[in-house]
Amino acid sequence: MAHPTRIAVTPGDGIGPEVMAEAIRCLEVLRAKHRLNLEWTRFPWPSHAWHQEHGVCWPQDALDQLREFDAILLGALGDPGPADDPERYLLPDSESLAPLLALRKGFDQWVCERPARLLKGARQYLADDRARDVDMLVIRENSEGEYVGQGGRLRKGTPDEVATQVEVFTYRATERIIRYGFEQARLRAEDRVRQSRTRTFQTHDGRVCESQVCLITKRNALGHWGDLYTEVFETVAREYPDVATHHELVDAACMKFVQSPWRFDVVVASNLQGDILTDLAAVLSGGMGVAPSCNLNPTDPTVPSMFEPTHGSAPDIAGQGIADPTAMLLTTARMLEWLARKDPALASAGRELFDAVAADLEQHGGTPRGTHDIGEAICKRLQP
Amino acid sequence: MAHPTRIAVTPGDGIGPEVMAEAIRCLEVLRAKHRLNLEWTRFPWPSHAWHQEHGVCWPQDALDQLREFDAILLGALGDPGPADDPERYLLPDSESLAPLLALRKGFDQWVCERPARLLKGARQYLADDRARDVDMLVIRENSEGEYVGQGGRLRKGTPDEVATQVEVFTYRATERIIRYGFEQARLRAEDRVRQSRTRTFQTHDGRVCESQVCLITKRNALGHWGDLYTEVFETVAREYPDVATHHELVDAACMKFVQSPWRFDVVVASNLQGDILTDLAAVLSGGMGVAPSCNLNPTDPTVPSMFEPTHGSAPDIAGQGIADPTAMLLTTARMLEWLARKDPALASAGRELFDAVAADLEQHGGTPRGTHDIGEAICKRLQP
Ligand SMILES: CC(C)[C@H](C(=O)O)[C@@H](O)C(=O)O
Ligand SMILES: CC(C)[C@H](C(=O)O)[C@@H](O)C(=O)O
Predict the structure, then answer these.
(1) C-alpha distance from residue A167 to each of A30, A229, A341, B131, B166 (Å)
(2) A135, B128, B339, B358 from B329: Cα distances, Å
(3) Inter-chain CB proximity A166 and B164 less than 8 Å
(4) A55 at interface of B, judged by CB pairs closer than 8 A
(5) Is residue B355 in some structural domain?
(6) Cβ contacts (< 8 Å) between A228 and chain B: which residues?
(7) Mean pLDDT, range A162-185, rounded to an integer
(8) What is the pLDDT of residue A85?
């Protein structure tokens, strides 16, 4: 028998374990139904709980332990609560979230993919009816940029303090993420053709394309990397004459996400600007409860990619059984599709899970239901 | 006779001169009506036009020429169009917008104030009716941070390129902007009491306050300055026990601006994060056409502050007479109120202009009208 596809399951903190429980139930149903050669191992870290016992969020050899898996399915980490409420801060964010950044970095998960598609039944925050058609993919550079952690604090804590934060951008990481964006744009166009729901985008010289990539920068103020991004974008774009291109400044992009989100297809942004835009995109697709996310390494098959919903651990609603597991389940569906590169049987399981989640949302969206009720309803749909 | 209050009028590019023409008409009406001791001088720079003739956007002694004025009223600069349409780029943004950043820096206009209040008649982009009550003031640190322009490009244009962008934050600039935020929160609470429209905000320990300051950072990823901001915020907050405090990460803040903007009062953010949040806030208050802005130096009375709408020069609609002058007029109203520190008679003129703009919007908002029609309708309201 072939080697099984192995998943490291890390439920994490807060609502993480609650939404993960539903993901595991769905995976169990799919495995039994399709006799999938799929295994998973549950880890009690990274987490606050592990920290309380060991004084650190995870063991020293955590990355080594995880390396042999084909994917990491993560619930949520940390406490995104307010800084001025010490009771809600068991650990400073910087410590409890460090594993997240360490995983992205350690396995060079250089793509963060966050689709924002408003499924039927999901909450619509915008007044304009055309916003029902939101269907974009935000691709966030996930390996460098604003997140390198460089800089420091000189004369810390004194009135003469100077804090610096250094952003570092390389040609190579810029080129690969922009190229990835164009490839995804092509794939999305092909998918739409298959599903007979073609979209068109106009280029500036009047040509009509079936997909678009919008580059985000703030090059009128952050010119050093803004110019690098722009130049690389223009170079790579020449290889994709079938894809329309567009450039938005990050401030204008936030505005246009709210004013006319239906105009976007693929959006490529830096680490921080991508972080900001994906939270906004999550709202456009119905809120954090339904926003999937993944951290991919498309170039090195020997390291696991990581699948985690966009939402955090939401300590304010943890333990109440009311967290929406939809984002976690859509994330799990994306993981199965991704793992099809190892075991093609997983592709259809992934699509099945996506379809079940979408059907559930269409039928019940808007009705308040508990975490477990939603998971159960989706499992029922999956049952043979 | 006392020295007149002197305004440097710089219409700029694109729709700048069009909306400025309406501001000047309103100022003329107000001056005649109240015999205001007010003068203005029009400058053909900074602008593209000046650049075409002289090869630079403004004369070398521009700052010296402007220094003797009490305020600068600016239309709009530059071309925020797409990077990939060379025809629309007369000048690279970095060049045409440089005067804007040079003015903010040259006169140490360290506060950028951008109120976002949804006036009756303005377009409502959000579906939730509670968003009718949006009334926040975003205060952007305007003198340092991400905008210091430091860093560079190593091995430029090669596959080995490394671009760096250095963010610099000082204790002093952090302290003054946070303190300014708390002062504004108090003033807003007092104003609301006067107008019998009190709002309440809860602190984390359950106390009820009449105003709130929300600090924005991304301290879980950009820790060096995030921690500095957080520490200074906590220190300054102790002096304002009557003001509720709150801390949001910039990504979550963008989400909450769309999901529940009515919960915010005063928001304090860094230069870049403030830039992003104010574009979003502009949408919440009805769009760029109605979003005022100002760049203030509250500490040095010998240099002018600068008043410019949040919007850019909008070359795509320039010359058509369809730009909405509302943002420009609200900005002009704010300028008059600000100048009341020099000449108290200007305060009521500022309020009068604000009220006329608000009344016009309430009556005609939603009806498509030209730039001039809107200006004329407002002038009529101002006439004795
Ligand atoms: C928790 C935090 C460090 C993280 C990020 O900024 O990347 C989160 O906001 C995300 O979007 O995954
Ligand atoms: C034009 C640009 C440099 C400017 C900024 O980023 O400050 C603008 O977006 C603004 O908000 O005033």
Answers:
(1) 43, 13, 34, 36, 6
(2) 37, 28, 15, 10
(3) yes
(4) no
(5) yes
(6) 153, 161, 163
(7) 98
(8) 53
Q: Cβ distance A223 to B149 under 8 Å?
A: yes
Contact A255 B166 (CB under 8 A): no
How far apart (Å, rounded) are the C-alpha atoms in residues B35 and B282? 34
In a domain, A52, yes or no: yes
Domain of residue A251, residue span:
124-285
pTM of the model: 0.95
The total of structural domains in chain B comes to: 2
* pLDDT bucket at A2, cuts 50 / 70 / 90: confident
Q: Are residues B274 and B329 in the same domain?
A: no
Q: Measure B244 CA to ligand 1 centroid, in angstroms.
A: 26
Does B272 lie in the same domain as B326?
A: no
Higher pLDDT pick, A88 / A306? A306
For the segment B50-57, the average pLDDT, to the nearest whole number, is 90
Å from CA of B98 to ligand 1 middle: 32
Distance B275 CA to ligand 2 centre (A): 7
Non-local CB neighbours of A309 within 8 Å, separated by 6+ positions? A19, A75, A76, A288, A291, A292, A293, A327, A328, A330, A331
B251 contact residues in A (CB cutoff 8 A): 275-276, 278-279
Res. A65 pLDDT band, cuts 50 70 90 = very high
What are the tokens at A234?
């223009």
Name the residue among A137, A140, A124 with its Cα closest to residue A199: A137
Residues of A in contact with B101 (CB under 8 A): 221
Mean pLDDT of A139-165: 97
Atom 5 of ligand 1, nearest CA residue = A275
pLDDT of B85 reads: 53
Domain identity same for B276 and B318: no
Indicate the burial class of B366 (C-beta count within 10 angstroms; 0-12, 13-18, 19 or more): exposed
B343, B258: one domain: no
Query: Among residues A246, A263, A285, which one ends one of the domains?
Result: A285
Cβ atoms < 10 Å from Cβ of B59: 15
Q: What is the C-alpha separation between B160 and B87, in angstroms, rounded? A: 31
pLDDT value, residue A86: 45
pLDDT at B270 (0 to 100): 98
Q: Which amino acid type is present at position A34?
A: H
Helix, strand or coil, per DSSP, at residue B151: strand
Name the token pair of A366. 């808007």
Residue B117 lies in a domain: no
Please check whether residue A245 lies inside any domain of the structure: yes
